[in-house]
Description:
By secondary structure, the protein is mostly beta strands. It has a single domain (about 1-200), classed as Porin. The chain is about 10% helix and about 60% strand. The protein is built from one helix and nine strands; from the N terminus they run αβββββββββ.
Amino acid sequence: MNFVKQTQKIVVAVVAVIAILAVSGRADAESGWTWPSVSESGVVLGYGEGTISEGKYRPFLTIWHVGFNLKEFSSTQSEGRKNALSLFLEPQINPAFSPRTDAEFGVGIGLQYRHYLTERLSAFIMASVGPHWITLQTTDQENGFIFADTAGVGVSLLVTEKSSLDLGIRIRHLSNAGIAEPNGGIDTWLGTVGYSVFFR
């Protein structure tokens, strides 16, 4: 799992650098800083499995995804659409059903890059970090306050001019950055399905 953790950190760092460079281009010489506008909103549902000492940990994701365009890029595959780098927030409340009934809640803050493959099909890569709270009792990880580091990829199919169905896969690492022991971490692979509405 060390490879998975290192990969997540690299993805988050690389996307963060890209975002800083992109945002620097949004400053207006006359009016100063321009805040990015809401570009999409959607619901993400997911299910996954991780291994802890007590057995399998199986969370069910219920996420509200809100995106803010940072920078758009011309697409050679779609005349009417633009590839985009966006900042997103993902407030979430996630029940878990194994090894017992538990819950997670928190928010992910991250970056997503969307690239159009055809007029209606796009692919995306995302990475996020954020504070969470878990009720899980395990000898691997202290419950309560933790951080969630997430990386993922997926595809979106436009079902109308302004909405899409989304399929994705994510890898998520939960730990508390050494605030409390034990801090062995919990790694979970997650499959997701979502519905998004675009505002621009």
